Amino acid sequence: MKLHPADSIAVIFCAQRTDMDHEAYAAAAAVMSNLAAEQTGYLGQDSSRSEDGLGITVSYWKDDAAAKAWRDHPVHSAIREQGRGKWYESYTLHVARIERSYAWAKSGIGEKSGIEENSMPYG
Amino acid sequence: MKLHPADSIAVIFCAQRTDMDHEAYAAAAAVMSNLAAEQTGYLGQDSSRSEDGLGITVSYWKDDAAAKAWRDHPVHSAIREQGRGKWYESYTLHVARIERSYAWAKSGIGEKSGIEENSMPYG
């Protein structure tokens, strides 16, 4: 959860999980998250999953070339095939260009204490 | 979870909840979701929340004017103030323009059975 500059790319991945193979999925998801973070142009990600198995992961990239390079990464591609075979009922993926960003936090909370209470336009 | 056309707007709201007032929050969230769906230019939303309180809601809008009209809706504005006071530790919001979308589903699953197994570029 942080701000990203205007013109960076958000890849919005929404997936409905199957009810199988949870441990292997969690292991693969952790590997993917760490591997993504090592890629050139990676800016960060936000991820959440409801108990009913609906998950959203948004990864942020410096530009579209970086997002496409991650899409085409051989390890990512192999894990995606596994996901289609076992872990996902369905998913959607939206690739979008950030136009503006805001952040808000209660004051005085750890590292976020510097953010003011009003929304802060970034880009 | 559905495809949206190129040039539509995704509003990515990532929020860390406080550990208080869960019932009132859930009621307000339901009201907001239903009210958003009645707005001109609303295309849909995806939402998930992890047990640790991190939630992501992505709402999709026909254009930026529709997204801004929802931002400025008086009921939405009032609920946002309540959220800052009680329900959220912090949040980020990214407004992004969709460049391309894909959907994938296992074949034969209810209404999604018409979607082919390969990713389908939309916009």
Automatic annotation (TrEMBL), chains A, B:
Pfam families with a match to the protein in the record: ABM
Keywords: Monooxygenase, Oxidoreductase
Keyword hit for Oxidoreductase: yes
Gene3D superfamilies from the UniProt entry: 3.30.70.100
GO MF annotation, one: monooxygenase activity
Entries under InterPro entries matching the protein: ABM_dom, Dimeric_a/b-barrel, Jasmonate_Hydroxylase-like
Domain ABM: 23-81
Keyword Oxidoreductase: yes
PANTHER family referenced in this protein's UniProt entry, alphabetically: ABM DOMAIN-CONTAINING PROTEIN (PTHR37811:SF2), BLL5343 PROTEIN (PTHR37811)
Protein name, UniProt field: Antibiotic biosynthesis monooxygenase
